[in-house]
Each structure stands twice: as C-alpha cells, then as structure tokens.
C-alpha cells in the first residue's frame, strides 16, 4: 500500500487502518452476531413458525378465483376482438362492393344502349360478387319497402298499398344488408 492510500485527508498514513485491519474488524462483528443467536435480528424467527392451514387455503382459493376471473375476462376479450375484426372486414368488403356497383351500372347502361361488348365483363363481375354474397334486387310488382327501395317517381293508383311499378336503378343486398336501395317508380 502506498503512503496516503486508504487514509483520509489530513490523517497520518502510518496510523490509518489497513485493509487487514478492516477484515479483522468485520470478522469480529460477524462472530459476535453469530454468538448472539438467530433471534438477535428476528429474521430467522419468522420462518420457523408454521403457517395456519386455514390462511393458506384461503389464499389459495383467492388466487384461484382471481385466476379464473382473469381467464374468463381474457376469453371474453378474445371473442370480442374476433367479432370486431370480422365486422370491420365485412364493412370493408361491403365498401369495396359499393364502389364496384358503379362499374356494374356502367355496364348495364352500355348494354341498355346496345353495346354487347361489355356483356361478358358485366356477367363475370356479377357472378363473382354473387358467389361472395351480393344479391340483385328485383322488386317489380312487390310492395314498396322504404328499407329496400328509394321512390323517385309516383303515379296515382287505386289508393291501396304502394307497389313498385318500374326499377330505374338496380338495388343490391350484400350478405343480408342493403348496400344500395333500388331506385323505383311507385304506384299507389
């Protein structure tokens, strides 16, 4: 050890404790603590007492109940998340179908004006969408239903129930939900 090492500022290096002195002091303290016994610090006394079986059973039951509750909450969360994901997917698909209806309308208009070149494309697109859940509404002769039909023209009738006389724009249903109501002429 060099002079001044381990000595506090202003102490004489010759009288400062050395590393060997500190080790001896620590060993003496440990020996005194062992001689005093385990109850001197109270640490070992806590572990010697046996736990009450009723307390242990109550804690076990509480932990089990908490675990079962958390498991049920997680199962409910997983089911709700899957249901919400399916709903989002359905809405996104219905939105895409709604955008494709413009193409079907354009094809129908072209076919109505005598252009037969677009018939195969219109047929293929309609078949593809029908396989996945699209239904074309054909309400002619049916009673008017404001949930499925949009009346834009009205002609006088016998005063009875309103009936769809003519379809001006085709309506579509996607998996049971109206994507676009049929634009119709009503009599009644």
Q: What layout of secondary structure does this protein have?
A:
Layout: H1 19-36, H2 43-48, H3 53-112, H4 119-131, E1 134-137, E2 149-155, E3 163-169, E4 171-174, E5 177-180, E6 182-187
Parallel strand pairs: 2-6
Antiparallel strand pairs: 1-4, 3-6, 4-5
General description of the model:
The protein folds into two domains: about 50-130, Alpha-Beta Complex (Hemagglutinin Ectodomain, Chain B); about 135-188, Head domain of nucleotide exchange factor GrpE (Nucleotide Exchange Factor Grpe, Chain A, domain 2, Roll). Strand 4 (about 170-175) and strand 5 form a beta hairpin. Helix 3 packs antiparallel against helix 4. The chain has about 190 residues and is α+β, with helices and mostly antiparallel strands. The termini are far apart. It is elongated. It is built from four helices and six strands. The protein has a three-stranded antiparallel sheet. The longest helix is centred in the middle third of the chain and has 60 residues, at about 55-110.
Q: What's the rounded overall pLDDT mean?
A: 81
Order of helices and strands: HHHHEEEEEE
Report the total helices. 4
Assigned CATH superfamily of the largest domain: GrpE nucleotide exchange factor, coiled-coil domain
Share of residues in helices: 40-55%
Structural class: alpha+beta
What's the CATH class of the largest domain, please?
Alpha Beta
Number of strands: 6
Rg estimate, integer Å = 43 Å
Main β sheet profile: 3 strands, antiparallel
Contiguous uncertain segments of 5+ residues:
1-9
The CATH topology of the largest domain comes to Hemagglutinin Ectodomain, Chain B
Could you tell me the strand content as a percent range?
Answer: 15-25%
Strand order of the largest sheet: 1-4-5
CATH architecture of the largest domain: Alpha-Beta Complex
- How far apart are the termini? 115 Å
Shape descriptor: elongated
Number of domains: 2
């Amino acid at each position: 050890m060099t002079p001044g090492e381990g000595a506090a500022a202003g102490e004489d290096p010759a009288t400062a404790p050395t590393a060997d002195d500190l080790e001896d002091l620590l060993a003496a303290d440990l020996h005194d603590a062992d001689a005093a016994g385990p109850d001197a610090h109270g640490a070992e006394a806590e572990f010697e007492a046996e736990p009450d079986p009723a307390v242990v059973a109550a804690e076990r039951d509480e932990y089990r109940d908490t675990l079962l509750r958390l498991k049920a909450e997680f199962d409910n969360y997983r089911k709700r998340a899957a249901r919400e994901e399916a709903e989002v997917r359905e809405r996104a698909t219905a939105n895409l179908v709604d955008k494709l209806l413009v193409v079907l309308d354009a094809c129908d208009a072209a076919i109505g004006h005598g252009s037969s070149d677009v018939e195969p494309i219109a047929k293929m697109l309609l078949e593809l969408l029908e396989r996945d859940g699209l239904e074309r509404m054909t309400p002619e002769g049916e009673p008017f239903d404001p949930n499925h039909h949009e009346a834009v023209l009205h002609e006088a009738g016998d005063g009875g129930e309103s009936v769809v006389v003519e379809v001006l724009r085709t309506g579509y249903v996607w998996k049971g939900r109206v994507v676009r109501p049929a634009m119709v002429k009503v009599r009644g």
